[in-house]
Amino acid sequence: MTARRGIDVWLPLIGLLLGVLLGLLSPVQIPLGYVKYTAIAILAAIDTILGGVRAQLEARFDLAIFLSGFIVNAGFAALLAGLGDLLGLDLYLGAVIAFSIRIFDNAGFIRRDLLEAYLRRVKRARDVPP
Predict the structure, then answer these.
(1) Contact 69, 32 (CB under 8 A)
(2) Which residues, including other chains, have CB under 8 Å from residue 46's CB and lie 6 or more apart?
(3) Is the pLDDT of residue 52 over 90?
(4) Is 75 within 8 Å of 48 (Cβ atoms)?
(5) Does the pLDDT at position 80 exceed 60?
């Protein structure tokens, strides 16, 4: 992992943490009727960011795919939640489960990749003679 690539990986995660912090500190109240949609939008955002970080680590990141993935996933999840509201079913739970599985999958990949890169760097430092 090069230094530039390392910065590219951490910037989205720092942005995500800043966004969560601002959201927690913000006095904005979300109306109760929009809570499902807001939760799905937050999960779509987290899924997109972690997917983007994973794509960056795999050196296959594409901004158009990143943005279109966020818009299409969030739109489809909102459509599913709206359809569920019309039918009186909790269809949004399908989106919540799908996003949750993808978030944990991407987080696990990112953790493994960063840990392996760190361990390789430590091993290289040990192998260098003084």
Answers:
(1) no
(2) 16, 99, 103
(3) no
(4) no
(5) yes
